[in-house]
Write a structure and sequence with these properties.
199 residues, DUF309 domain-containing protein, mainly alpha, 43% helix, globular, 5 helices
């Protein structure tokens, strides 16, 4: 029997037996991931405008702060700004904050908008299957919320226009199979009349 079998275990830098996950590929101890105020792991890796991780030390785009409670009109304006800049991943984080901090009766609205932003993120990355699925799911959620709430323009959002945009984009990316879209050029108009209709 060799010296690493029975009774002798691999020990990490901390001296714990058998915990190889605390070490990186070179055998050095890894540092703990940064945590947010609620204790959730927060990646320190820089990210690009579509939320893809970049190598450590690379210059990424500023991260959207998480857990920000904004008035609904401010959430819509901030998300639109990020969508127009070609940052749908970051816009999804704004919608997610509204979804988590808003009233229970609006959760499905904000969740649907977050799904639309993630769908646009995936189509911009060239993931047509996932992108089309999320665009349709988000459109369905927003449409269902509007029907249940009896409201088609919450906070000035043109839900009918946004739903139509999502379904058209889903069909287009499926036809073009794998061709990434320009996220900024294809961003939806959350409010009718602001720039062109995302075409």
């Amino acid at each position: 029997m060799d010296s690493t079998s029975w009774g002798q275990e691999d020990r990490s830098a901390s001296g714990r037996a058998g915990d190889r996950r605390d070490r990186d590929g070179d055998g050095r101890a890894r540092s703990a991931r940064p945590r947010d105020g609620d204790g959730r792991a927060r990646s320190a890796r820089p990210r690009d405008e579509l939320g893809r991780p970049l190598p450590y030390g690379a210059r990424g785009v500023p991260r959207q702060p998480e857990g920000v409670v904004r008035p609904p009109l401010e959430s819509v304006a901030e998300a639109q700004r990020l969508l127009d800049e070609g940052k749908p991943f970051h816009a999804h984080e704004v919608f997610e904050d509204a979804w988590k901090s808003g009233p229970e009766e609006e959760r499905e609205l904000w969740r649907g908008l977050a799904q639309l932003a993630v769908g646009l993120t995936h189509t911009a990355r060239g993931n047509t299957t996932g992108g089309a699925r999320l665009l349709r799911r988000g459109a369905g959620s927003a449409e269902e919320w509007a029907a249940g709430a009896g409201e088609s323009r919450p906070y000035g959002i043109d839900l009918g226009g946004v739903v139509a945009w999502a379904r058209e984009l889903a069909a287009e990316v499926e036809r073009e199979d794998g061709v990434p879209v320009d996220a900024g050029a294809r961003a939806p108009r959350l409010r009718a009349g602001a720039r062109g209709q995302g075409s």
